[in-house]
Write a structure and sequence with these properties.
With 184 residues, the protein is α+β, with helices and mostly antiparallel strands. It has a domain of 123 residues. Helix content is 36%, strand content 10%. A four-stranded antiparallel β-sheet has the order 1-2-3-4.
Length: 184
């Protein structure tokens, strides 16, 4: 009678000592349960790391949005000082398709004539976005303006923030020139 031996038959390999590490020869090693526990712990730690990394990315993009709004507000005030009016639009202008697909500079930029004279180029939202509603938006009658980070903030909308938009409390941040434009 011929016995069949598989390469997975550790008893056979243990008997002949087929180049196995001494722990396997002595019967020591990890059980399947121990390996599964270790793999589970590694998976949980990886999941926690990825979620905190994602949260940090969202926070960084929101910080960039606030910096962009502040930079544009400063440029708009410089424009007003030089020309005694804000750049005029006919309604809401933005780079996203729903709001006109305006370029980032020039007389047809989403803030007309602000770039390249007062800023090098108009910023875009830091998150790659395929939603045609989500982008920076600008509206002005020449006397007042409102600038939005529309549908883009990712980490909350505290009512105490100077960027809080009472007209869009859960989906936009804003800067504005006066209480008149605050309600637009």
């Amino acid at each position: 009678m011929i016995k069949k031996f598989s390469i997975f038959n550790f008893q056979f390999l243990k008997k002949i000592g087929a180049g196995l590490p001494s722990t396997v020869k002595n019967g020591a090693g990890f059980t399947l349960i121990e390996l599964l526990v270790v793999i589970s712990i590694i998976g949980i730690l990886a999941g926690l790391t990825l979620s905190s990394y994602s949260g940090a990315q969202k926070q960084a993009r929101d910080t960039q949005r606030k910096a962009d709004l502040t930079q544009l507000k400063t440029a708009l005030e410089a424009y007003y000082s030089a020309r005694n009016a804000y750049p005029i639009t006919t309604g809401w202008w933005g780079e996203c398709s729903v709001y006109g697909s305006h370029p980032r500079s020039g007389s047809n930029g989403y803030i007309p004539n602000l770039a390249p004279t007062f800023v090098e180029e108009l910023p875009t939202d830091p998150r790659p976005n395929t939603d045609p509603n989500c982008c920076y938006l600008y509206n002005s009658n020449g006397v007042d303006y409102k600038l939005l980070a529309h549908c883009t903030p990712e980490t909350g909308y505290p009512t105490t923030s100077p960027f809080y938009d009472p007209a869009r409390p859960t989906w936009a941040w804003q800067v504005h020139s006066s209480d008149v434009s605050k309600g637009w």
